[in-house]
Amino acid sequence: MRAMLLDRPGTPLRLADVPRPEPDPNQVLIRVHACGVCRTDLHIRDGEVEPGHLPLILGHQIVGTRVDTGERVGVPWLGWTCGRCRYCLSDRENLCENARFTGRDIDGGFAEYAVADERFVFSLPRDYPHLQAAPLLCAGLIGYRALRFTGDAKRVGFYGFGAAAHVVCQVAVHEGRRVFAFTRPGDLEAQALAAELGADWAGDSTMQPPEELDAAVIFAPVGALVPTALRAVAPGGTVVCAGIHMSDIPSFPYVDLWRERVIRSVANLTRADAEAFLALAPEVPVKTTVTTFSLEEAELALEKLRSGAIKGAAVISVAA
User: Fold this and answer.
1) Torsion angle, CA of 208/209/213/218, rounded to 10 degrees?
2) What stretches in the chain show pLDDT beneath 50?
3) Do 260 and 153 fall within a single domain?
4) What are the residue ranges of helices labelled H in 4-83?
5) Which CATH number do you get for residue 295?
6) E-state strands within the chain
7) Partners of residue 101 on adjacent β-strands
8) CB within 8 A of 61, min separation 6: which ones?
9) What's the total number of domains in the chain?
10) In this predicted model, what pLDDT tens digit does every residue of 43-53 receive, in sequence order?
């Protein structure tokens, strides 16, 4: 089969012919139709997140067909948990001490076929074509989990309006929240998309919102946005860091945190998150905006993502 391989961090992905994977007894073989491109893929490619093995096939927002049943399914980032550690036994499998992740420890979806643990394979809503379904599997799931951590916040800021924010913005509006979108300076296209999706206000991340926020979610991997977001939230507000990797957070005065403001992170997802969000998405309905690349263009997709040139989400189209 054709696959895009990462030979070592910091080098471009290369197209190769590799053996089709053989599923273990608890795995299923999936013919890949599409795979979303996530910033985590970029972090692994650049060496900011350590790969589980090399060479590695990236990609953890897989939409494909089970070869054994013909069912269309989705495969997310969390690919395997032990079921025995203290986290698994307390409904926190996203923190499993022995977890394995799709596209990091298990070869992912930048290929014509992939294998996945049957427990971590999900049925997808029928109304979503392959390309539009792919961003639901990480951008949507992590965005949904991050939004849950804001509690009942009515005024929510999203710092970084890319794949995750453009999905969860629609969920927040559906829930009656008011969204304030922060983009890279000068990214008028992302600001226009935010307004189109129902945001009350959109501006760049150097600006203060027109009113205090009850919570903020940081999707951009920029540590300097943490104190910026703290200064934008009201007393008692929460700042949620939604990425797997972030640059260092600079020091800031205690007064920015005082009055019961909270900083917390989001790690991975659970199967319960997937089931809840994939049921909710067609009710909203969430509509994903995608920029499509061929399998051979996976490295280009990562470069576009790095430079902020993607509107909505990037998706690799592998097979019809």
Assistant:
1) -70
2) none
3) yes
4) 39-46
5) 3.90.180.10
6) 2-6, 14-17, 27-37, 56-57, 62-66, 72-75, 78-80, 100-101, 113-117, 122-123, 155-159, 178-183, 201-204, 213-218, 233-241, 262-265, 290-294, 313-317
7) 78
8) 35, 36, 37, 38, 74, 75, 76, 77, 109, 134, 135, 136, 137, 138, 139, 315
9) 2
10) 999 999 999 99
